[in-house]
Design brief:
By secondary structure, the protein is mostly helical. It folds into 2 domains: 122 residues, Transcription Elongation Factor S-II, Chain A (Up-down Bundle); 195 residues, no CATH class. It is globular and about 85 Å long. The termini are far apart. The structure holds iron/sulfur cluster. Iron/sulfur cluster binds next to helix 12, helix 17, helix 18, helix 21 and helix 22.
């Protein structure tokens, strides 16, 4: 906190913002996936900022890029044509400033008949100018990211910067790293894991289902799921019991001990470098190694195709068709983590009004999803039990009857 305050005092918010944008550009230029993710997030931020700018400030931005408001006299002369655009009411026409932009920069609006074109200029209402600015911003940022990607190869591997930039996308910013956390009142064990799987986010419940079906997990699946279980409070001993129980359905106990038990102990820091590894966050899973045939790791909202995800959600009876449609729309627009949050909201109605449930890192960490879901269901169960007990208490009047 002190460091943050010192940096702010010396640079100011705007400079920190600019510096962080360029640092992230360097960190997120390296692959198609990273570039797409960064473009989407920066696009949202850019649009949000423009939409919340007071009208005069937005007009000042447009002036800076040489876009001048159409003078009132000219606007009124074009009244009939501008009013013929679908959805424009007389009130909106009177209060909305218009801008004249080369029509080649507003092809989407021209195609949708959302502007009026004359003499090579598209006459666009102020709120629609934001979408043109956003398109320009995305095109320019996309080009810069590709250029930065070519330059990234020259960043020295051995220096201090390259390793920092290369791991930035998998860093988890929250101070909660879900190391050996106890979920609710129940410790996670080999005995209760099958019933607790109902509280897992889709990535982990799919890995669990894959393990139960195939009785094995490949390298990334073992890491993703093993560390998740560790973060959810499963002890190393219970983890060994659980994995041995499943793997032993297709191999002998000796083979399990020889080939896989070491991995489990390694995750808990009992072998090798003796580092106690932390569970993967959503960013790391989404940007990590994509699953291939026979793999069960990854994020379904990122790695499943639309049809596969749609039929899975239907099979699992997640929400209504409309709610599943909302989840799929978020997935299709590359908002994988928001799709996951929507899934949580659908399955845990009014969770935000249930006391003492931590919803902070939903969509950022699978363990946050699991922990919130387990607490939610524990509270629902105890509320039901209390109601049942209250119903069983016989009133004194009833006893006398
Ligand atoms: Fe799992 Fe995160 Fe993907 Fe949700 S968004 S399914 S928690 S990786």
């Amino acid at each position: 906190m002190q460091l943050e305050a010192t940096v702010k005092a010396n640079l100011g918010d705007a400079k920190i913002d600019v510096a962080s944008h360029f640092i992230l550009r360097a960190a997120y230029c390296r692959s198609e996936d990273l570039r797409r993710w960064f473009l989407t997030q920066e696009g949202y931020l850019f649009k949000h900022r423009l939409e919340f700018l007071p009208e005069n400030a937005l007009q000042a931005v447009l002036k800076k890029i040489n876009l001048d408001k159409v003078p009132n006299a000219q606007k009124n002369a074009l009244r009939e044509s501008l009013m013929s655009i679908p959805g424009v009411t007389p009130g909106e026409f009177a209060s909305t400033p218009y801008y004249a932009i080369p029509f080649t920069q507003a092809l989407d609006l021209v195609a949708n008949r959302s502007c009026f074109v004359a003499d090579g200029l598209a006459y666009v209402a102020l709120p629609k100018v934001v979408s043109i600015l956003l398109a320009k911003f995305r095109t320019s940022l996309s080009r810069s990211l590709v250029l930065a990607s070519a330059a990234f190869n020259h960043v020295e591997e051995e220096g201090r910067i390259a390793p920092l930039l290369k791991t930035m996308n998998s860093q988890y910013a929250s101070n909660k790293n879900y190391t050996e956390q106890i979920v609710g009142e129940n410790e996670l064990t080999a005995a209760n894991i099958d019933s607790m799987a109902a509280n897992m986010p889709l990535c982990m419940s799919q890995t669990h289902a894959g393990l139960k079906r195939d009785h094995k997990l490949k390298h990334w699946g073992r890491l993703q799921y093993g560390l998740f279980l560790k973060g959810a409070g499963m002890s190393m001993e219970e983890s060994l019991v659980f994995f041995q129980r499943e793997f032993s359905k297709i191999m002998t106990a000796e083979q399990f001990h020889k080939n896989y038990a070491y991995n489990v102990r390694h995750m808990y820091g009992k072998e090798g470098k003796r580092t106690s590894y932390t569970p993967y966050n959503c960013q790391k899973i989404i940007m990590g190694q994509a699953p291939q045939g026979g793999d069960h790791h990854g994020c379904p909202y990122r790695h499943y195709d639309d049809q596969h995800l749609a039929s899975l959600l239907q099979k699992m009876a997640i929400g209504t068709p409309a709610e599943r449609g909302d989840i799929l729309r978020l997935k299709r627009s590359n908002n994988h983590q928001l799709a996951c949050v929507k899934h949580f909201e659908v399955m845990h109605p009014s969770a935000s009004s249930v006391p003492n449930i931590d919803l902070d890192n939903l969509g950022n960490h699978p363990n946050a999803w699991f922990s919130a879901s387990a607490s939610y269901h524990a509270k629902q169960t105890s509320a039901t039990t209390e109601t049942e007990l209250a119903a069983q208490v016989v009133s004194p009047e009833k006893m006398e009857e």
